[in-house]
Amino acid sequence: MNLGDKLLYYTERLQHFFDRYLRLILACVVILIGIGILWSGVKYYFAKKEKEAALELLKAVSSPNLIPSLEEVTKKHKNTSAGLISAIILSDYYYQQKNFNKTQELLLILEKKYPKKIKGLVWYYQAKIAESQGKWDQAFELYQKIDQKYPDLQNLILLDLGRAAEKIGKTQIAKECYQKALNQTQDEVLKGIAETKIKNLN
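The structure corresponding to this sequence follows.
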């Protein structure tokens, strides 16, 4: 078979292939285009949703009825950044008001909806509630979990962890926490507290 015959043979084979599979190829192209359009639409939808939620959060923060407005944002925009922020603000507000049932309710929602993002923060509030209720063993365990899994939150919880350790008789761990806080923190007030705690335990 000479070169011309070979080219003709392969051209015919190629034409036969396209004749046979043209619909399938076109269907695949259409599906890929459709997926691209759909993905663009989904991204646009979520971007629009985030924007609307952010605007509502700004309105809520400037509203004279702050708490009801934040409650509305939290319910209406559960899966957005604005919904997350409003839920965190509310959980802190209810914690400060010593409404621990409402705080726990919000923390459970936050933990379920945003498990990786803010689990450390959820544990922190749960530890604080446990402290307020005199459940020092539970508080100690939660602070330890934060210390082990969220090193970036260490500066926030080292003094708390030390205090909880003291309360349950783990004096050596308490000393280590206070010393670590003294070495790591840049805050002069926190340094002073850590120094005082270390002196009291020696």
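The chain has nine helices and no strands.
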